[in-house]
Amino acid sequence: MSGLFDLTGKRALVTGANTGLGQGIAVGLAMAGADIVAVGRSAPDETAKLVAATGRTLSAVTADLSTTEPIARVVAAAGPVDILVNNAGIIRRNDSAEFSEADWDAVMDTNLKVAFFLSQAVAKAWIAAGRGGKIIQVASMLSFQGGLRVPSYTASKSGLAGLTKALANEWAAKGINVNAIAPGYFVTNNTDALRADETRSRQIMERIPAGRWGEPGDLAGVAVFLASAASDYMHGAIVPVDGGWLAR
């Protein structure tokens, strides 16, 4: 049974792996045996140390994924990979009546457009080589719900959920699994403002059955599952990891 989850000999390209959820996913994949290609705007020094402690290697590719411009370079620099994790994402908060076009475009470009075109580039290489692979999108609870004061984030993550299903429909027969993780409220840079707001933080905690915010390492297990042979017959699934939030 343990062999189903063994990623020894695999290479995983993880975007936004320098901190937060991406770091938790990258380290989890490394613990299961995968070598990591970390893509982001800053050096993933801490992640590299954590990956090294597992006995695996990490290669860093510096790129700003706010546009599609670096995608071809990223794919070339990464070399052949077996797993793609589209984790890089941003959020902008404001009342919908005051939300700017610039904030809308920035979030949609990073969270949805780049995720699609990076998935496309990696899948093209797999299809050309006659082989399959695993694509894991990092969606959100707001792939299911509306949220407050985050219209572009909600739209992007709802779109990512739909994209996960659309790509699965086209690529499943080619041996490519496309699935998504939908994290709940986690301790990351994106939730700093929420955790600093005493009232909002209390309201959130009151609704989480697990009684705590998620930690990035809480995503490691489901990421390994979706990256491994254990999920070979899963296509287009969106798996919540939310401490029970959606069940409440």
Describe this structure in words.
- The chain is globular, with a radius of gyration of 17 Å.
- 40% of the residues lie in helices and 15% in strands.
- The mean pLDDT is 96.
- The chain has helices at residues 20-31, 45-52, 71-78, 101-128, 151-171, 192-196, 198-207, 220-227; strands spanning 11-15, 35-40, 58-62, 83-86, 133-138, 176-183, 238-241.
- It has one domain: Rossmann fold (3-Layer(aba) Sandwich), CATH 3.40.50.720.
- It has eight helices and seven strands, in the order E-H-E-H-E-H-E-H-E-H-E-H-H-H-E.
- With 248 residues, it is α/β, with parallel strands linked by helices.
Which descriptors would you attach to this protein?
alpha/beta, 8 helices
Count of helix runs:
8
The average pLDDT score comes to 96
**What is the makeup of the main sheet?**
7 strands, parallel
Number of separate strands: 7
Task: Trace the largest sheet across and list its strands.
Answer: 3-2-1-4-5-6-7
CATH architecture verdict: 3-Layer(aba) Sandwich
Per the CATH scheme, the topology name is: Rossmann fold
Number of individual domains: 1
Q: Which CATH class applies here?
A: Alpha Beta
Distance between the termini: 33 Å
Fraction of helical residues: 40-55%
Overall structural class, as computed from helix and strand content, comes to alpha/beta
Radius of gyration: 17 Å
Percent in strands: 15-25%
- The CATH H-level superfamily is NAD(P)-binding Rossmann-like Domain
How would you spell out the order of helices and strands? EHEHEHEHEHEHHHE
Low-confidence runs: none
Anisotropy-based shape = globular
